[in-house]
Q: What sequence folds into this?
């Protein structure tokens, strides 16, 4: 079972406030609208085969009901808890310095998660979920994909129409890139199968045309023999005019069959939005003071709910740094720009550059 389907269903049940109790690979679900009825569902084919639970899969009654409800509800809303700053700070620094948290400003942000049902049709049909996460500016928010600990939000913010149009347009472009290789592989496979089918059809009708023309040629050669050489047997077979009529019919049938095969192996992809989740969260703008025994420096970083942060820029190479170092002269740099000049002594590329000025 696709993990995308499981995540979508479990996320829906959580956000909708339905009661869910886990029992190994079986989930006991009680809907708020019908509390007297209990649904036992599973995402495991093996558990479903034992007859204990209903398998939730594409096209199953339980899953179809959820899709219908998401379309009826429109945009669902949820909030993300802010990041744990202690954990985030510990990931920024190393043993060369310590971070002291100063002022923290909260900035409200929103993002959209769009759930697409992608259907690919050719000689075979397949369906799968594609989840896309974009921030309010239409940029892909890759950090949001693994996040699952949403808080149910009873009062969602209004989705601006222009903002939604921007996100939908951008999501279509991202979706195309994410499935391009899958569609290319499917087209390549379909192309090979189509070529084989066309070759088989063409060989079959080429043989029929040759047999028909040979039969007409044989009939003509017998008809041209003198009566004494025919041994009393009347000429049989078809005329060249009849043969060419049959050949033309074979051409028509060949073209028709090849057209059917082309339609059969034509690759088509359709993406349908089955769910939209509006996510609100706070970005924490943190003033952080880095200190070691010889120097200190202050930086400002923005921390996302998952603990990711916008990396500061190295003062030596001007590249983003994920693990910060503080040199004895107070430069904030990355590990690659730190130089060991003597045992227990370090300096950075920025120090070297400053000394040469």
A:
């Amino acid at each position: 079972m696709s993990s995308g389907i499981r995540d979508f269903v479990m996320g829906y049940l959580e956000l909708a406030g339905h009661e869910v109790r886990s029992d190994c690979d079986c989930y006991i679900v009680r809907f708020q609208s019908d509390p007297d009825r209990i649904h036992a569902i599973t995402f495991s084919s093996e558990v479903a085969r034992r007859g204990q639970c209903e398998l939730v899969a594409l096209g199953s009654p339980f899953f179809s009901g959820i899709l219908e409800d998401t379309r009826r509800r429109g945009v669902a809303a949820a909030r993300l808890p802010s990041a744990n700053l202690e954990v985030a700070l510990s990931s920024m620094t190393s043993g060369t310095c310590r971070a002291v948290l100063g002022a923290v400003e909260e900035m409200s942000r929103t993002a959209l998660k769009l759930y697409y049902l992608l259907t690919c049709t050719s000689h075979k049909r397949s369906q799968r979920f594609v989840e896309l996460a974009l921030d309010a500016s239409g940029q892909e928010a890759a950090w949001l994909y693994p996040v699952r600990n949403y808080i149910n939000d009873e009062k969602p913010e209004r989705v601006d129409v222009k903002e939604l149009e921007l996100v939908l347009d951008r999501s279509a472009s991202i979706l195309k890139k994410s499935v391009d290789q899958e569609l290319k592989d499917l087209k390549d496979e379909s192309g090979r199968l189509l070529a084989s089918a066309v070759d088989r059809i063409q060989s079959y009708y080429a043989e029929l045309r040759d047999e028909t023309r040979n039969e007409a040629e044989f009939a003509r050669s017998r008809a041209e023999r003198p009566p004494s050489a025919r041994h009393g047997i009347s000429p049989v077979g078809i005329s060249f005019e009849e043969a060419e009529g049959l050949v033309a019919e074979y051409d028509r049938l060949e073209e028709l069959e090849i057209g059917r095969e082309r339609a059969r192996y034509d690759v088509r992809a359709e993406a349908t939005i089955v769910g939209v989740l509006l996510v609100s969260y706070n970005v924490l703008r943190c003033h952080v003071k880095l200190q070691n025994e010889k120097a200190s420096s202050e930086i400002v970083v923005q921390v996302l709910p998952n603990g990711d942060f916008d990396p500061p820029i190295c003062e030596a190479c001007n590249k983003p740094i994920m693990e910060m170092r503080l040199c004895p002269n107070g430069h904030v740099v990355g590990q690659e720009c730190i130089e060991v000049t003597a045992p227990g002594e370090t300096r950075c590329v920025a120090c070297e550059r400053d000394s040469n000025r």
